[in-house]
């Protein structure tokens, strides 16, 4: 099937979705959604606030009541609804990909790929819905015990803007498969895809109140979810800064369950036994994918001293070849950054890199004069104490470091508060295993980067997160374990 880029698509929905109905905001406020390629307004969206979030929470709470349609629905039927939703996404693949490129700025090609991954994720969790099993446990004494994996309850799902469709699906999928009800708050930069996905929820036939989508800002709409005593769990993806606030809000309200997927500064170690050309391509994609806006980007490239100069030269040449521009143009590989805040953050860090003595090999400036485009940038001679070595840049800015021994690379890889991912490129299996075991990160890639699928758990150690997404591990994040112990009768009386 050939999908066509079209930045002129019609925006079909801009309202708040509660109880299977479209609503305007209680306050009457709207907020603008900007096209990051031009900084011009695409449309206004209803601005959900505390009152709207509260209404959505109450709808989700009602849908979760004992005896409700949703609570009495067969698990296989929940799976069928998810399959139906996945089919609708597939039928509207082209529209969804265009909508995502429009609000996010990623290339249409990348958007199409994201949607495929998102559909696979939905189908994976659809298949899981009727396979959520407890255990039968032989305890001591005259009893037997079984466990039930029950839904947690009302789940607040707070997502960022870097993979709007995929992040909707990788939280919605397991939450719904496990039988929860949800209130999802999309990022303020990219609400349109989530609102459109809500329309597919309606079309798929989910009962009212099971899925609610409240577009709005973090501290207001998002804050209402994290502070609520009626929200049983929050799953968040975004900055470590906000993740900490969510943890606090959970503690100050009802100690709701949380899963957090936050920042990273992931190392990628290139040993001296590699094919340099291949390693350069892996490291390049590990950083520049999605314009550098990936939580698990390989943003600390450690290169063995024997191949360092060649590696820097070739990485710079490759970065300079990147075609930056219109996300809807087939030749483009890099669109704009998401907004002015990210744009300013990236340049602040680039300036700090220059000031602290890293060598700017290429880029460092703005691309064009409209929208939020950043030139592909490469720094060499990066030292561990520099800000660009420690802080998440979330932009197309590569940092290349030099190392001598694997022990040193391991120590420096671990010298971070983050622990989302790490990678090693080597032909030596022993080095790969030593490194994989020694580095404290949730994902290790050997001779690849970013490989992942709906089946494989993903999440962070240390300040990169708590809990896991994808795979059956994600499903269990949306379940409580109930232990039922029954006395075994000793005789028939
Ligand atoms: P953010 O963490 O502020 O926003 C992510 C989501 O959280 C959005 O939906 C936002 O509205 C919501 N939010 C913000 N404040 C909130 C609050 N007080 N209570 C509840 N929800 C709240 O991230 P932002 O500002 O977009 O980006 C800042 C940095 O975070 C980036 O430069 C990057 O370093 C990192 N980031 C990491 C992501 C990841 O995939 N782990 C995704 C996006 C950003
Ligand atoms: Mg923020």
Radius of gyration: 24 Å
Report the end-to-end length measured between terminal Cα atoms: 68 Å
Total count of domains: 2
Strand share of the residues? 15-25%
List the bound ligands: 1,4-dihydronicotinamide adenine dinucleotide, magnesium ion
Structural class: alpha/beta
Estimate percent helicity. 25-40%
User: CATH homologous superfamily name of the largest domain?
Assistant: Aldehyde Dehydrogenase, Chain A, domain 1
Shape: globular
Q: What oligomeric assembly is this protein in?
A: single chain
Tell how many strands the DSSP assignment holds. 20
- By DSSP (H or I, 4+ residues per run), the number of helices equals 16
Supply database-style keywords.
globular, 493 residues, 2 domains, Aldehyde Dehydrogenase, Chain A, domain 1, 16 helices, binds magnesium ion, binds 1,4-dihydronicotinamide adenine dinucleotide, alpha/beta, Aldehyde Dehydrogenase, Chain A, domain 2
Structure, described:
It is built from 16 helices and 20 strands. It has 493 residues and is of the alpha/beta class. The chain has 2 domains: 270 residues, 3-Layer(aba) Sandwich (Aldehyde Dehydrogenase, Chain A, domain 1), CATH 3.40.605.10; 180 residues, Aldehyde Dehydrogenase, Chain A, domain 2 (3-Layer(aba) Sandwich). The strands form 5 sheets. The chain has a 7-stranded mixed β-sheet with strand order 14-15-16-13-12-17-18, with helices on both faces. α4 packs antiparallel against α7. The mean pLDDT is 98. Bound molecules: 1,4-dihydronicotinamide adenine dinucleotide (NAI) and magnesium ion. 1,4-dihydronicotinamide adenine dinucleotide binds next to α8, α9 and α12.
